[in-house]
Each structure stands twice: as C-alpha cells, then as structure tokens.
Amino acid sequence: MSANVLFGVAATTWTLAACLAPLRTGHGAARALLGLGCALGVVACVTALPNGTPLYCLPVELAGHPVEFGIEPAGLWLMGFGLVPAAFACGLGSPLAGRSGRWHAGAAFSLLGALGVFGLQDGAALLVAWESMSLGGALMLMGERAAENDGRPVLLMLALLEVGAVALMFAVVMLGEATGGIGFARFAAGSESLSSPVSWLAGVALLIGFGAKLGLLPFYEWFPRAYASGSGATGAVFSGVVLNAAYFALSRAWNDWLNVSVQGDTAFGLGVIAIALGVVSAILAVLFAFQQDDWRSLLSYSSAENASVAVVMLGVTQLFRSNQFGDLAGLAWTVALLHLAGHALAKGALFLTADGIFAACGSYDIVARGWLRRSGFLLGLGAVFSVMSLSSVPPQAGFVSEWYVFQTVFQGFHLASFIGRLMLVLAGAGLALAAAVALATFVKLFGLGLQGLPDVDVMPPVPRTNAAAVGVLGLCVLAVAVGAPLWLNALASGAQALFHVDIPHAMVAGWLLVPLTDKFAFISPSKLILAMPLLALLPLALLWLTRRRGVRRVPVWYGGMTAHGRDAMTTALTFSNAMRTFYSFVYQPTNSAMREHEQREYFVKRLVFSSGVTDLFERHLFEPAIRFVNVCAQRLRALQSGNLNFYLALIGALLVAILFLTLL
Fold it and tell me: What sequence ranges are listed for the domain NADH:quinone oxidoreductase/Mrp antiporter transmembrane (predicted)?
C-alpha cells in the first residue's frame, strides 16, 4: 500500500472521528479512530522516507485551481515524529473533555489541518489547512471544562493566530502576484525573478505568520494561557504535530519560495532577523518556564523555547547560504529537524505524565507527592528519559541535537561578514544561557513534580495506561539518539535537493556523529549507551556498601524545630525564587499578602500570600492595544444611537462623496 493511500485512509478515519464526536455513545470509537489515523500516518511516513511522496491531484478544486498533495522528506520526518505522541494522546483522550465531543472534533480538525500544511501544494489550500488547525485547537480547548473556562485564553490564542493568518495571506498574495500563480511549484520556479523588496517583505510576513504558532515573541504569551486551560493530551498534539507543521511550513517557504540562493543580501538579512528573534524568544520563554508551578504552563513555555531554537538554526541556514556554504547550511537545516523530532517525543511523554497525575489527584500543580514511588517503573523510565532529553543530558536525543546546535554555531568563523560572525557568537552565548536555565527548569519539574513524600497515603497511583504511554515515548526518545547514525539517512534526499550536498551522510562516521568532519568534534550516543551500564557499576557498588554498613537517617534542619519531612521539603516557589530575584528586571515580580482578622486587628485569622511574575507583552503591548480599541469603541458608539435623522445624514454625506468622486 502506497504512502498516499495510507494518508488518505488516515484522513478518512479522522473525518469519521469528527462525525462521531457529537454522539455521546461514539466518543470511544472517535478516540480509537483518532489514534488509528495517527498510527497509519506514522506508517505512511516511514514507508515514504527517504524519497517523499509523489504528487497526487485530489478530485477537488479551490479558487479554480486543482489541489495537489505531496509531502517532502523533511515534512515526512517532522510529521512522523509529531504523530507518535499524538497517537497516544488521542487514544487515551482528554481527562477534561467529559461528555463533550468537541475535543474529539477539534483533534480531528487539527490533525487534518496539519496533514494539509505538510502536503498541500498551493497558497489557497495552505491557508485553509492553516485555519483548520487553529479552529481545531480552539475546539479542543473549548471542549475541556467548558462550563468552568471563560474562553479568554482561547480568544487570545485565536486573536494572535489571526494576526499570523493575515500576514500569511499577505505573503501568499505578494508571491502569487510576483510569480504569476499561487502554486508552490510556481513560487519556486519564479523565485529567481523576485526583486529584493518582495523577498524581504514576503520573508518577514512568513516569519510573522508561521511564528504565531511557533511561539516567537510576542506570540508566545498565548502558550501558557491556552495550554493551561486544556489537558496534557491537547498539549501533546499542539507541541508535536501542530508545532512541527508550522516549522516545516516556514522552512519550506524560506528555502524554496524566496530567492535566498541567488540574492545573498536577502538571505543574510532574514537570517540575522531569525537568529535575533529566536535567541531572545528562547531566553524569555525558558526564563518564564522556570517560574511556573503548573505542569502545562511550564511545558508550554518549554515548547516555545525549543521552537525558537529551531528558528535560530533556520536563521543560521540562511547566513551560510548567503555565503555559498551549502554544506554548513545543510548541517544547520538538518539539526533543526533532528531537534524538533526529539522534542516532540519528549514533550508528549511529559504532557501525558501531567494527565496521569491529574487523573490520580485532580490537579496539574507541581507539588512533591511521591509519584515515582506510587506509580512504578515505566512512568519513571519514560519521564526521566524525557526530562534528560529536554535538559540536554547525554545520551538522549536532546543532547545530540543541542550538541549539533553549538557545533554548527561554532562554524561562524567561516563567514566573511563581521556582523554574521558576531551574530553567531552572540547566538551561542544566548543559547547556552537558555540551555542552562532549561536544565534547572526540568530539575525542578522532575524533582518536585514526581518525587518527594506522599501527602496522602490513600491517593491512587498514575493510571497504568498513562504510565505505559510515557514509558514507550521515553524509550523512543532514547532510540532517536542511539539510532541517529541510521535515522539521519532519511533526510539525505531532502538535503540533496535543497543544498546539493549529502549532508546527513556527512554527519555520520561509522557510529560517530560529527559536524561534517571528525577532525572538529565527535560524539557517539550509540557507544555511550553501551558504556553507561559499566559506569553504573560505581553507584551500584556504593549502594551495596551502604546496605552493608547501614544508613543513619536524621531529620532535616528546619530552623532548630522538629518538623514533619513534608514541611521541610522545597516548594516550587522557593526553588525558583532566587532566579526570580536575580532576573527581577525581566520578571518584574509581584507579591501580595491579605490578612483576615477575627475580632481585633492583632488577632490574625487567615493570611493569604500570592506571588507572580509580569507578562511583559501583555502589560506593554496587548493591554495598551485593548485600551485603544475600547476607547475607539466608546467614541464610535454614537453610530449606534438609533437616531433616524443621524442615519439619514450619514447616507446623504455618503451620496455626496460618491457624486464628488464621480465628477472627478
């Protein structure tokens, strides 16, 4: 069975799931169909790699043009890795959906839209698929605790995504006018004839449009609100297949539709913009992730940070292309794809961990309740592998991709421009800061979110289905790193088509991973995974010695007072407060204390303390814009006065203006 047929069957199962969603008795079947469609999509991606799928003309027309479908190798790579956690998320379903079928319909629309973004071959169809992903995301969120949510996070998400949609529409119209058609083949064929201003404007518009879903600043502020109003299953779909689709669309647009291979100035300028925007977005996103005390909010900020790292590598690709270094440009392009592959698996595992914790205790708060002790080996294995990957700890996939990121940035000395070399030096420093904070963030998540002492002995463990899903995804994260010398071959034809160099094969030397040459640097997760069991003999020996000699346990020092172990444990606030104080110029922290008195003011009955950080763009960008719109609305209320004479006067003025223009 060909890959296109499998994709057609997957789309059919998602459509059937959307049709069954309104029926309360069909929710189980809808989940099964959603998960089956994702599994078929993964099989189709594996079948079609490394060559991509042939173009297939669908039996429909849009805007008078036939609609074609075909996925490039890079799209198959990103979609396949994004669909793996989506399959588990859809199969398990949302614990917040209740009896509403909107979540299942929304998941179907999101998956269908993502399939369209990966495969449709003209601008009009792309815009339809892009809006379908946004609509599906809104339906998923509105279908979860619909009676409790006020809808503001969803409205903010849709508002910012529509800003991106307008920018995409502007770019498609501009490129269509310049190349004589809206087909992607026409965009690519006519790219060499594009003028520099057109390439510049279209490139910036595309960055704004696709960056709205990638979480580049200022758009990343919809991430924590929207993710935190939904479930981990929704987050797994958002941070996997949807985010990967947005990055693929941006990468294809910049590398295929614009004349970056001809006009070096355009490629250089877009690269500088992407690097600067991506580095600042990554730093801000991970700094705010560190302050979160909700699983979904922390993981959402982390998704924005990882997407920003991929955008930085796309910018590095443009810098090297502007200097005709096709091999280094291909290295940066491949590294971004590898980074997003590992991120999708690891982030999906942690989102499903959050759903399992919610199923057990009814809360997504990051509180030390001893979940590892309660829930067994599989949950701990998958969670620790995923946390290690997102913290760039060897030998996981995140370590491999981050190592490649820095090795690529270190190649900046090849650039002829001083500005280009300086940008890569600053990018390396900024990404190093982001990586360090990310390590502290996931130490906090794992240490406080999964370990500690149980506060309620009768609390149930994480459901076995969630634990099994997390364990499988964690093993997949490890497999991406260990099997990287094999998996990278799947991107060979895509890199050859773009850069005319077989980059993935140059990144592998036997079982070593190298940045095009083993004379510069090398690592080998495949060999490291064999050596690590030997290194584990040392802690096992220490454990054996402690058992023979015995361990004396004493209470934690708690100000000289005897306290229960739980009272002395670190909380999410105390863990992150030092960073909040040091970076107070970024966080702009807020603290408040409310006292309730019983009879007299010196008898305190209750003390409520709250603390938080300031959302920079909400305070300095979104709120002023909302105030401006409200002021304009107040001034324009006169148009709705209901006075008939006023309306007749407006019509008369309009007629006079039309006659005046006609006479001119």
Answer: 125-412
